[in-house]
């Protein structure tokens, strides 16, 4: 609803701006025409030998300009524009600059873990000095192993940016067995790009020798890809106009850097996305809901601060859905081994504890909270996600 209101306000400002611009141009054109006509009369009088009343001409011009009243016309249109623009600015300020401190809740967390998460974020970004400074100022032990691992990653990525694949190939070769577990063969991608680089900068013989040494081991499982690369040998110096021009696209290098980072983090047991970045983005997306809830519960500030669980769900995008979580629609509790989700005959799902409460510990049947169907003991089945 708020976004629709902002869109409508922006539309009004845009409309007033166009009207103001059109009106200004009309006024300028009117004044210009009157002045041009006066200049034309003066020019015509200069060509005549008889006397000409210039004072009368200027007086007449002044009267016409006063009748047009350009300043008043411009002020009116500009005032309407400024009024709508002022309302739009206030609306933006209220919507995008709320007092987010209202949504604050005191949550216990481990400062040691928090410091490590922040430092590891900067290590991921290649900002190693900042990561070290944070740990030093917090009095935390240095994450020497994690730092060295991400340092290796950024050395590899730095080389890839200048199209040097040697460090990446060396790393992929050292971790070949682990990388084989992935569906996408990273080592093949690296060797393919290296082959194309040799073909572009070297000779056909050099590229063929590299293919025999490094690409043949992949031919049995990736015959179609291998055949394409062999076909490239016939288009030396003309790959851009060949049937295989797609594999020379610069986007392959960009995708390779992303895939390298993803696989490197996977082997480290780390997520591809920075936990700090993901948590911050999720907090920003959920903040509007938290602010609305805080405003509704403004009169119950102590209750809001003491809550261990939010009374309403906070909807996040699919990018924040890493695994399935069941939340009971009745109790709002998360499903767990002790309190698993249970499927009822009507196909609605509740947590086991909610069902036990509704059925008086399984002693009687009860009506589903979401439909007229009744259910009794023995008709529930546990769901597994």
From TrEMBL:
Residues 149-206 form the CTLH domain. The keyword Transferase does not apply. One of its GO terms (molecular function) is zinc ion binding. GO terms for biological process: proteasome-mediated ubiquitin-dependent protein catabolic process. Keywords: Coiled coil, Cytoplasm, Metal-binding, Zinc, Zinc-finger. Residues 28-91 form a coiled coil. It comes from the Eukaryota. One of its GO terms (cellular component) is GID complex. It is found in: Cytoplasm. PANTHER family: GH10162P, MACROPHAGE ERYTHROBLAST ATTACHER-RELATED. This is Protein RMD5 A.
